[in-house]
Structure formats: C-alpha cells, structure tokens
Amino acid sequence: MTLRIGIAGISGRMGRLLSEEVAAAGATLAGGTGRNDDAEALFAGSDAVIDFTNAATAEAHAALAARHGRPLILGSSGLSSTQEAAVAEAARSVPVVYAANFSPGVALLFAMAERMAAVLPPEQYDAEIVEMHHRQKVDAPSGTAIGLGRAVARGRGRTLEEVGMESGRDGHTGPRATGPIGFAALRGGQVVGEHTLLFAAGSEHIALTHRSFDRRVYATGAVRAALWAAKQPPGLYDMKHVLGMG
Ligand SMILES: NC(=O)C1=CN([C@@H]2O[C@H](COP(=O)(O)OP(=O)(O)OC[C@H]3O[C@@H](n4cnc5c(N)ncnc54)[C@H](OP(=O)(O)O)[C@@H]3O)[C@@H](O)[C@H]2O)C=CC1
Ligand SMILES: O=C(O)C1=N[C@H](C(=O)O)C[C@H](O)C1
C-alpha cells in the first residue's frame, strides 16, 4: 500500500508543488488544508503530514501529529524558541523531520559551515551571513540563515544564543564585535532563495554560496523526508538524517 501523505498549506507556493511531488514519488495525496480547513481530519486521514504554512500553525500541527501518532515533516520557518520546544516535545512520541531547508545542497552547506568554523578561529575570522528572498517572504532572517548560524556556532563549540546574532546594523554601530555572527536579509522580486556564508579575516575572505533556482527542490526533499520518516522511530530529525549524513 502506498503512503498517504497530507499537505498542510496545500494552496501555497510550496503546497502546490508538494501535491505534484507526492504523485511523482508514487505516494497518495491524502488531502490538504488551508487556513479555514479541518486540520484534525487531515491528520486522522493521513499516514504522514507535510507542513509548509507558518510558525503558529506549525506549532499547532506538531501537537496534532503527536495526538494522532503521525510523522510530521515540518518546513515552516520563523518559529520562536517556544514553538521549537513544542516541536521537540511532539518528536518524543512521533518522528518529526524539521528542516530549515529541504534541499540536499543546503544540507551539505550546513556540514561544510560547521567544519570550516571549527578550523577558522573566531578572533580572526568574522562570520557574516547574507540571504535574499522574494518579496512575499514574511520572516527574517530566513530559517536557512539561522540554520547556518547554528552550524557555525556548533563548529565553534557553542550555541548561536551563546555567540550572539548581530542583525539590522544601521546608524552609528561602532566597530564590529568579535564573536557574534552577522546577519543581513535582502528582499525583492521573485528570488527563490540565496544564502552566502562569509568568513572575513584581515588578509583573506572565504565564502560559501547556495542558490535555489526552483523551489521544487524543497518539495522533492520534503516528500523524500516523508517516505523516510514513515519508517523511523519517534525523534527529531533533519535533512542530514534523511540523506544519511547524520
Ligand atoms: N524548509 C524549506 O525547505 C522551505 C521552507 N519554506 C517555508 O514554508 C512556509 C510556507 O512558504 P510558502 O509556500 O512560500 O508560503 P505561502 O504563503 O505561499 O503558503 C503558505 C500557505 O499556508 C496556508 N495556511 C496559513 N495558515 C494555515 C493553517 N492554519 N492551516 C493550513 N494552511 C494554512 C496559507 O493559506 P492562506 O493563503 O489562506 O493564508 C498559504 O496557502 C514559510 O514559512 C517558508 O519560509 C518555504 C520554502 C522552503
Ligand atoms: O520562504 C521561502 O521561500 C524559503 N524559506 C526557507 C527559509 O526561511 O530558509 C527556505 C528557503 O530559503 C525558501
């Protein structure tokens, strides 16, 4: 029997592509919801649910996934620490794949960022993250930019909260502090998603850039994650686990 996958946010930019990718993967589209639909019924009638909606809805859907015993694939970004704690709580009873970015390229970028940060001393190499997205995006910095920041902090043996984030520089900011990671967010046009991590030192710069040209790459990754998650024990996973890198 094929896996029945439900899609929360089915009419959105990602939701429409996800419907196509579910069919392309040979799975069954169990149904989909928008803002005014019955999420309870979606979870009851699906073997796994993919959510690309928004932060508040993602939190509610994490609780529904746990209540119905359904794997959850979570792509929504902009979650607060409290909302992320609710996702982690759900992952105690069901598999949850929570990825800031479902493209394989970004999974590799995170791994490389962590390794580079482990080698380049923060006293000499300032880490700066620049991202650009389409004008409809509502959260900043992007989930992927925050994920990159977390990877850099991890490479430096700390958390992002410990090293600190410097974003929205404007006016008389004073010299750059040593340690915090800088973030800049650009918005405009129809840019699907671009991220650059820059390590800047006195005598050299090294930059890693990822560009998505088609958001289908995220949809393919999310469906792959759903098929994978359906066979996993409860736990909090991300794309590196799905790709066998974790
Ligand atoms: N992790 C990843 O790889 C990626 C993550 N994203 C993230 O996914 C999210 C969605 O992105 P995108 O598709 O571009 O955004 P859209 O705004 O195009 O789509 C979101 C959809 O969710 C719907 N929605 C809102 N509230 C609910 C609800 N309570 N129940 C069900 N559906 C609801 C919206 O409906 P309505 O229009 O009625 O409000 C809308 O159709 C964002 O957080 C984005 O950052 C995006 C791309 C890749
Ligand atoms: O909103 C988007 O479009 C995207 N959101 C994700 C993010 O916040 O990182 C992933 C990708 O960059 C596209």
UniProtKB/TrEMBL annotation:
Record-listed E.C. numbers: 1.17.1.8
Domain Dihydrodipicolinate reductase C-terminal residues, every copy: 105-243
Domain spans labelled Dihydrodipicolinate reductase N-terminal: 4-102
Domain of life, source organism: Bacteria
Transmembrane parts of this sequence: none
The UniProt record lists the keyword Amino-acid biosynthesis: yes
GO biological process: diaminopimelate biosynthetic process; lysine biosynthetic process via diaminopimelate
EC class name: oxidoreductase
Reaction it catalyzes: (S)-2,3,4,5-tetrahydrodipicolinate + NAD(+) + H2O = (2S,4S)-4-hydroxy-2,3,4,5-tetrahydrodipicolinate + NADH + H(+); (S)-2,3,4,5-tetrahydrodipicolinate + NADP(+) + H2O = (2S,4S)-4-hydroxy-2,3,4,5-tetrahydrodipicolinate + NADPH + H(+)
Protein name as catalogued: 4-hydroxy-tetrahydrodipicolinate reductase
Role description: Catalyzes the conversion of 4-hydroxy-tetrahydrodipicolinate (HTPA) to tetrahydrodipicolinate.
